[in-house]
């Protein structure tokens, strides 16, 4: 065998070959080609430079041949296999306590000194690699290279299954889990599984409440480094992600992706109940609450609940009296943009909301909803005194005065606060 003639040992205490050594003949029985030197002549008989050159050539050829033939080297400690002996040798150091390089801060061990030096920057905060475009700094050259692709939009790593491209190998590895369904990393608290250890680490913070990433400007804390990076752009005003259609800029890729759907009309998120489609996952989640009846947002003043945070914010203004939206026609102030939109229809005469039963039209969605109850007979508002039911909150308020004896205020005086 060629490697035997070179005097190269191909076994070690920690390795074994999974396949039998190749015979000195090809599959068709013919003799393989050899270099023109005697099989009996050891490589030591050549001069030193020729010997070293020949050894490197044959070593490289052996590795390539083994890799192509599907041969592998197996680690006796963990049964992991490798296509090259050199890779196995490097891997074996993980199992050997002697000769490892240990971090003096956290005692983590590394097989190479340069890996230790790189790790130490986690403790020192040193970031020697700076982006020439935005001056952002990184503690590893590989992180800088990945970051530079956010400026160039270069995505050199392509999925062989669906041809989707990524700017980093890490992004590609995470994506591949979508095709294989393989999720090796499980949460010990809720058993949720992840296809990458980093995703599991981020998830664990939802259980611990840990927020290790702090904004140096306003001290706000985050549970993920990516969220901090996005937040920092609210201070710097940086918007590195630009729409190629209308040139509008965004401070995060997610916002750009959502915006692009306004150009393409794409609605990839479908409701499994009624098949309605949405351009954003958030819109789908809000819509699903119309099926489940879930109302997770509660008013701290009157305990009324809402299915959207924006509806709660608008409602809170009924308690505070705040009216931030102003009509440009008559300067009337309103508590929400939705109310402003309905009010503007009083100037234009538009009635865009039509009843599907009788085709009557209304200036606002709440007006249409109130009207629909006349068809359904629904009466959701109940008097707490006599249990009489009403289809509209205003009718209930008027009725309550029959119990209290209260008389409506005359025009021009401040109206009573709305019941909630």
Mean pLDDT: 76
| Secondary-structure content class | alpha+beta
Which topology of the largest domain does CATH recognise? Answer: Double Stranded RNA Binding Domain
Q: What is the general shape? A: elongated
Most strands sheet: 3 strands, antiparallel
Q: What is the number of helices?
A: 14
Distance between the termini: 90 Å
- Number of E-state strands: 25
Strand fraction equals 5-15%
Which CATH C-level class of the largest domain is it?
A: Alpha Beta
User: How many domains in all?
Assistant: 3
What does this entry show, briefly?
The protein has 420 residues and is α+β, with helices and mostly antiparallel strands. It is 40% helix and 12% strand.
Structural description of this entry:
The protein is an alpha+beta fold. The chain folds into three domains: 2-92, no CATH class; 110-286, Double Stranded RNA Binding Domain (2-Layer Sandwich); 297-404, 2-Layer Sandwich (Double Stranded RNA Binding Domain), CATH 3.30.160.60. The chain has helices at residues 2-5, 48-69, 85-92, 113-124, 141-152, 169-180, 197-208, 225-236, 253-264, 281-292, 309-320, 337-348, 365-376, 393-404, and strands at residues 15-17, 73-75, 81-82, 101-102, 109-110, 129-130, 137-138, 157-158, 165-166, 185-186, 193-194, 213-214, 221-222, 241-242, 249-250, 269-270, 277-278, 297-298, 305-306, 325-326, 333-334, 353-354, 361-362, 381-382, 389-390. It has a three-stranded antiparallel beta sheet, with helices on one face. The N and C termini lie far apart (90 Å). 2% of the residues are buried. Residues 1-51, 60-70 and 410-420 have low confidence and may be disordered.
């Amino acid at each position: 065998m060629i490697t035997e003639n070179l005097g190269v040992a191909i076994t070690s205490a920690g390795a074994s070959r999974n396949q039998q050594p190749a015979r000195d003949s090809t599959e068709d029985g013919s003799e393989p080609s050899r270099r023109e030197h005697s099989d009996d002549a050891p490589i030591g008989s050549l001069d030193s430079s020729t010997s070293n050159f020949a050894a490197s050539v044959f070593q490289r050829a052996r590795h390539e041949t083994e890799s192509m033939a599907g041969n592998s080297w197996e680690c006796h400690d963990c049964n992991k296999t490798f296509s090259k002996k050199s890779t196995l040798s490097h891997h074996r150091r993980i199992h050997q306590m002697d000769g490892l390089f240990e971090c003096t801060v956290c005692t983590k061990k590394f097989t190479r000194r340069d890996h230790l030096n790189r790790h130490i920057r986690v403790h020192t905060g040193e970031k020697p690699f700076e982006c020439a475009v935005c001056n952002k700094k990184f503690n590893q050259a590989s992180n800088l290279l990945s970051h530079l692709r956010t400026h160039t939009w270069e995505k050199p790593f392509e999925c062989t299954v669906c041809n989707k491209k990524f700017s980093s190998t890490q992004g590609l590895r995470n994506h591949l889990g979508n095709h294989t369904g393989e999720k090796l990393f499980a949460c010990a608290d809720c058993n949720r599984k992840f296809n990458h250890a980093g995703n599991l680490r981020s998830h664990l913070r939802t259980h611990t409440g840990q927020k290790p990433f702090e904004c140096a400007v306003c001290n706000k804390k985050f549970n993920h480094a990516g969220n901090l990076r996005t937040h920092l752009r609210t201070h710097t005003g940086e918007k590195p992600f630009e729409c190629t259609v209308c040139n509008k800029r965004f401070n995060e890729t997610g916002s750009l992706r959502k915006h692009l759907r306004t150009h393409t009309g794409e609605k990839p998120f479908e409701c499994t109940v009624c098949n309605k489609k949405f351009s954003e996952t958030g819109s789908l989640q809000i819509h699903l609450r119309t099926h489940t009846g879930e109302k997770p947002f509660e008013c701290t003043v009157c305990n009324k609940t809402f299915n959207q945070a924006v509806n709660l914010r608008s409602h809170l203004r009924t308690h505070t009296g705040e009216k931030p939206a102003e009509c440009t026609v008559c300067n009337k102030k309103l508590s929400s943009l939705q109310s402003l939109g309905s009010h503007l229809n009083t100037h234009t005469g538009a009635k865009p909301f039509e009843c599907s039963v009788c085709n009557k039209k209304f200036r606002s969605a709440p007006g249409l909803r109130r009207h629909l109850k006349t068809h359904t007979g629904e009466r959701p508002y109940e008097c707490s005194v006599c249990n009489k039911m009403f289809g509209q909150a205003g009718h209930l308020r008027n009725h309550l005065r029959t119990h209290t004896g209260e008389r409506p205020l005359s025009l021009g005086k401040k109206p009573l606060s709305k019941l909630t």
